[in-house]
Amino acid sequence: SRAANGTGKSDTDIDDTNVIFKLENVSVLSPLRKKLNVVLHLNNGQPTLSLVKDSMVELSVSDLKSNINFATFLPVPEKPNLAYLFIVYDPNDNENYKYSDPILITLNKQHTLAEFQEKQLISQAKDVDFVKCIEYIRKQAILTGFRIFDSFSSTLPEQKSFHVEGHRGTKEGTLYFLPDHIIFGFKKPILLFKSSDIDSITYSSITRLTFNVTLITKESEKFEFSMIDQSEFAKIDEYVKRKQVMDKSM
Amino acid sequence: NSNDESGCPKVIRRGVTCLLLPKGMQRSAQNRSKWDKSLDLFVWSIEWLLCPPKNRVVPLQEDVQEGVQKGVQEDFVQFVSHRIKETDSIVDGMSNVVYEKCSKLFNFPPLEKGVEMRGIDKLKVLEDHNIKFYTKIFPQEMTESMDSKKLILLEPSKKCIGELFRNRTVIEFPTIFVAQEETDLPLGYSIVEEPQLSADIELTPIEESN
Fold first, then answer.
1. ipTM surpassing 0.85
2. Rounded to a whole number, what is the distance in Å from the CA of B48 to chain A's nearest CA?
């Protein structure tokens, strides 16, 4: 399923000489579901992020500084051996490609660590863990112009992040509360809010076990998330107060 | 070190033109080719790119979990091994790790535990399974693109790595493509014949023609 790219393959192919950093055969869940290579490379001298399979480029984002809107590592609920890498880019830069959904990658911590150690990108000591891979990837990103957040690993109280399970309509998903963002994922469409864009919040349908949360943006758009466990209420309420979002519940 | 018009520095190591990438790029960081004092010879880092047969389909892990009966084309396997002696042939320089990866991809018996498999036996298995080895060949005159998608066949056992790569160009260190069929190679790659050189041209090392 090659992207409709009229310029032909040679323009988008990545020379080995231009590869800055490559993660081989990682499970990409969005914008397409496929095992792909994630490559940071130079394209006409400019750092570029591409998803590649068998020398076919599926997606390419250039001018990373302005075109990557948001990127973060996230935990995968109930799967401590996995981590998500979530990247939101400006789809307008991608006229050559048919995708506009954000990039979502699952990394197997053990495999990634083994790959990094085998490639000598990080120390080969036995006590090294996946945090070193995160550090390495974040450095590569910074060098090429964008920042990848990692607030879930942070010990700073103001960085404190958490996630809760919930539903949006019939879709089950996870609400991630980050220092400045709220994400609902990961069935499409993935929702990303800046917490500063959220005007108010209401709690409703409060039962003994669950409750619903409705986020209302400054543009008065409403997003309801249902069936959230009662035990998560305190965390969400504290987050809301800290962000000075208005609680409009009765 | 010398720079050509494209600005990519190169160095000739043991008669091999090595294009050097900026420090910090992954392939540069991985390169541990060096002179080994104790062995008194040069040892190379070598990238192996194993190309599984096109018809080989494996189930996707997520699909297995979801009980879906479908598969995807088996992935290429990339592996960099280090300290490969320039005096070894490809088969001798193929570490057990690489051999094991091949045995999985090309369906031949894995190494028996505790049994040292000699080069000659490995060669027979590889030949029986029609395994061929290729490397990139670079045009004499570099164009804008520093990389190459043209491959030439390598002799697996009769010539040593030092001989096979002499007067060739590599990006940091050699890459050896391993495949049964030409059609299994990554998209865009093609096999070319070794340019026929007359005897006196062959004697002219590449470094002097630059």
1. no
2. 13
